[in-house]
C-alpha cells in the first residue's frame, strides 16, 4: 500500500457568511479537506487574523483532523470572510471582503519546506489578488518537486483576476479546473473564442500542454479532457439543501486518477 500523498491547498481560507449562519470555505482549503477524506495528507496553507474568526478557523480545522501548522497568523489584518446571497435557484453570489490576512501571506522557511515535499498543490486566482500573495503563490509553485502536480482551480470571483494572473498561473499548471461560465471568460482573456466547450477545453489543453482539463457544468454534469481522450458525465440531481458542494471534489478525484495511472494499483 502506498503512503498518503501530501496535498496542499494554497490560498484563501474564509468564512462564508450566509443570512442564517456561517460556514468555513475557500476552494484551496476545501480541496485539502476533501483530499484528507480520500485518504491523502491534506494540508491548508493560508493566513488568518489574530481575531475570533481566526480562532474559529483553528477550531474547525482541528475538529476535522486537519493540521493547522501551516496557517500563518497576521497581527494586523482580519480573517477572510465573504457575504453570501442565494438566488431562487440556489446559486450563490459572493461579496468578498478586502484586504484580509491571506492577502499578505509569505513564503516562510516552513512553507518552503512544505513546497519541497508536496505531491500536489491546488491554487486559484482569488488569493492572487494582491501583489504579495500572488508572488508567494508563484514562488511556492516554483519550489515544488518536478513531479508535483499543480492544480489550478480558476474560481473567478468579482474583479479579483486579470489576463496576466491567468496566464502566469496556467503556465505552471498540470490540471486545470474551471466551470462552464469561466471557460469563455478565460478564453476571451487569452484572445480566443470557440463554438463549443470541448473545442475550447481542447485548445487550452494543447496550448499549455495540460495533463487534464476538468470542466464542471452545474446541472449538466462535467467534462474531463486529456491529450488523448475526453469523458462527459451527465451529473447527479440533488436537492437544494445539497447544492452547495465543497469546491475541488472533481479536482481531487482527478489528482487521484492521475496518481493511480502513474503508480499502479494501490
Explain this structure.
- This protein has a nine-stranded mixed sheet with strand order 5-4-1-8-9-10-11-12-13, with helices on both faces. A four-stranded mixed sheet has the order 3-2-6-7.
- It is globular.
- It contains eight helices and 13 strands.
- By secondary structure, it is of the alpha/beta class.
- Helix 1 packs across helix 8 (249-263).
- The chain has helices at 27-37, 52-63, 109-117, 131-142, 163-170, 182-189, 197-207, 249-263; strands at residues 6-10, 14-18, 21-25, 41-49, 71-74, 80-86, 92-96, 120-123, 149-153, 175-179, 212-216, 222-225, 230-233.
- The longest helix has 15 residues, at 249-263.
- The protein has one domain (6-263): Ribokinase (UDP-N-acetylmuramoyl-L-alanine:D-glutamate ligase), CATH 3.40.1190.
CATH superfamily: Ribokinase
Number of helices: 8
Query: What is the N-to-C order of secondary-structure elements (H for helix, E for strand)?
Result: EEEHEHEEEHEHEHEHHEEEH
Classify the helix fraction into a percent range.
25-40%
User: Structural class of the secondary elements?
Assistant: alpha/beta
